[in-house]
Specification:
By secondary structure, this protein is mainly α. The chain has one domain. Helices cover about 75% and strands about 0% of the residues. It has 3 helices and no strands. The protein has helices at about 5-15, 20-25, 30-45. It starts with a helix and ends with a helix.
């Protein structure tokens, strides 16, 4: 899975109030991992 896909999915989730469950299915990762990625996105952005 590409990092770009992860970034785009999390960005869409945060910016457009997406569905976490749908993101877990799209990325094939757990809800806990999605929450971690959201926190990282909010702290650091694309870095």
């Amino acid at each position: 899975m590409s990092e770009q896909l992860k970034y785009e999915t999390i960005e869409e989730l945060v910016d457009h109030r997406g569905n976490k469950k749908r993101a877990t299915l799209k990325l094939g990762i757990s809800l806990r991992q999605v929450n971690r990625l959201i926190n990282i996105y909010k702290e650091k952005g694309k870095k």
